[in-house]
Design brief:
The structure is a homodimer of 200-residue chains.
Chain A lengths: L2 H18 L6 H7 L4 H7 L3 H27 L3 H18 L9 H7 L4 H24 L4 H25 L3 H23 L6
Helix pairs in contact in A: 1-4, 4-5, 4-7, 5-9, 6-7, 7-8, 8-9
Chain lengths: 200, 200
């Protein structure tokens, strides 16, 4: 069977997870919306919904990392990059009528206490995001422990704002979260400037 | 039928929502875990799972407001109150093996694009939280538009940190979110001190 079918199954599942979560998404709906024979879903994912779910979580995690990397590449400094990332999230919310938000958050909350395999998949993705953002802030001159705190705070602001923006159907929470993240990073950069540490 | 049964149904449903979300929670499981006759669930909630869900969302929202109010009453200043609120969230995560987090977040993400009645219930609760926190920060002297931004940022940090703490099974994200919220509020209070505005 062509791997285009497998890709279609993965993309469709990711979209269904974003809109309705893991529990609410059935294998029959996945096959139907991916225009794939029901048997082909199990052909590509013999472990069923759990195996497919884990692959979608990891794939979505990588895709999000690439999105962040693209924003960084386009931005001339770290504050613009952080602002651009939140602005992009707000645009996506508006363009998709508040449906397509983080592909992992809903699933992460659903599985945290109910499915250890999938919880570990979400944990791996989140650790990669945190490590990537920590690396980026450290590269901008922020000491590593502080850079990790900033990464965690920025990502918490982002995920929390997705919840509020989707429930309230307004981008206000995302815009405010973006400003708060920019302020936090600006504060850390000022600390570095005023006390560049032993290496300076 | 005694209203103790109704209360047991509501409490059980709230706990099941926190652990496994709305979609994954069935009326039969609710009746069984609440030790209530199946028929009594429909007696108290003729509208079925949706009506029960809406009442649980609104009740949990009020309970959370009372928790925040209790922390405020115990705290001698606004920074201690914000710190205490996040510290309490971290303790709850640890004590419940990372299961009992926000009773509304999982449901809010599940229903945002799939059930308008329940989305509106989550939106009402979130607006009450935002209004309550805005009022509290305004009372501490922070101008109202800035107070609302702080409220939104603090609540986004809290909800995002629940996602990361539950997925990673560590309170680190909640502790970091708490520090970031305290820093943000402290920054706003410094702004007020340095420029008390026309009323001073």
């Amino acid at each position: 069977m062509p791997s285009a079918t497998k890709d279609r199954i993965l993309d469709t599942t990711a979209e269904l997870f974003r809109r309705q979560g893991y529990t609410g998404t059935g294998m029959k709906q996945i096959a139907a919306e991916a225009s794939a024979p029901f048997g082909s879903v199990y052909h590509f994912f013999p472990g069923g919904k759990e195996e497919l779910g884990a692959e979608v979580i990891r794939g979505s995690g990588r895709m999000y990392m690439q999105l962040f990397a693209a924003v960084i590449t386009e931005s001339d400094d770290v504050l613009n990059a952080v602002h651009g990332f939140f602005a992009g999230a707000g645009e996506t919310l508006r363009e998709t009528d508040y449906a397509d938000a983080c592909p992992i958050a809903t699933v992460a909350l659903e599985v945290a206490s109910t499915n250890e395999t999938l919880r570990l998949a979400t944990a791996d993705v989140f650790e990669e995001w945190i490590a990537g953002a920590t690396q980026y802030f450290a590269y901008a001159g922020i000491p590593r422990p502080r850079a990790r705190e900033l990464a965690l705070a920025m990502l918490s602001l982002l995920e929390g704002a997705f919840i509020f923006s989707r429930a309230l159907r307004t981008t206000e929470p995302m815009a405010v979260a973006g400003s708060a993240a920019v302020e936090a990073v600006a504060g850390a950069l000022r600390e570095v400037e005023s006390d560049p540490g032993p290496a300076a």
